[in-house]
Write a structure and sequence with these properties.
11-stranded mixed sheet; 158 residues; mainly beta
């Protein structure tokens, strides 16, 4: 019996079919002039603390501000920054994150980030975590944080 060969067209269709079920986190979310991309987290245990990281772009002509975040998977959610106190880096809550017009702000390990405090269930590698972001002008948008490995330093790329 002869095995059919894969034509370039069949290969392209197969690739599209395999990409179709990828979750929404790969595409980010938009609300008003605000675009949120690369939302991700790290694996963490239940009852512990997790973190959310993402990139926010203000494509508008007016400033905006990330005011807060919420997730049903955490007892509380706070916006945080890392601050150097002598030779020690400490996390501190921030009241909000300014988003100047035309600017891009990246929430990342060692900098600004979202703290998920009192996790109700573990953040398992390969899973997703819903996160609602509330902006001063743009309003609310929900993104899904893709959970990478416990020691991940950046988002997983697909």
């Amino acid at each position: 019996m002869r095995t059919p060969t894969m034509t370039p067209t069949r290969r392209a269709l197969l690739a599209l079919a395999l990409l179709a079920p990828l979750p929404a986190f790969a595409h980010g979310a938009t609300v008003g002039d605000i675009a949120v991309t690369q939302p991700w987290s790290r694996a963490a245990g239940a009852n512990g603390t997790g973190a959310g990281f993402l990139t926010i772009r203000n494509g508008g002509s007016q400033p905006d501000r990330l005011l807060s975040a919420a997730s049903p998977i955490a007892r509380s959610v706070e916006l945080h920054s890392h601050v150097r106190e002598g030779d020690v880096m400490r996390m501190r809550p921030v009241e909000g994150i300014p988003l100047p017009p035309g600017a891009t702000v990246t929430l990342q390990p060692g900098g600004l980030h979202v703290m998920l405090i009192g996790l109700k269930e573990p953040l398992s590698q390969g899973g997703e975590v819903p996160l609602t972001l509330r902006f001063e002008r743009a309003g609310e948008v929900q993104v899904m944080l893709h959970v990478g490995a416990a020691g991940a330093r950046g988002p997983m790329h697909h």
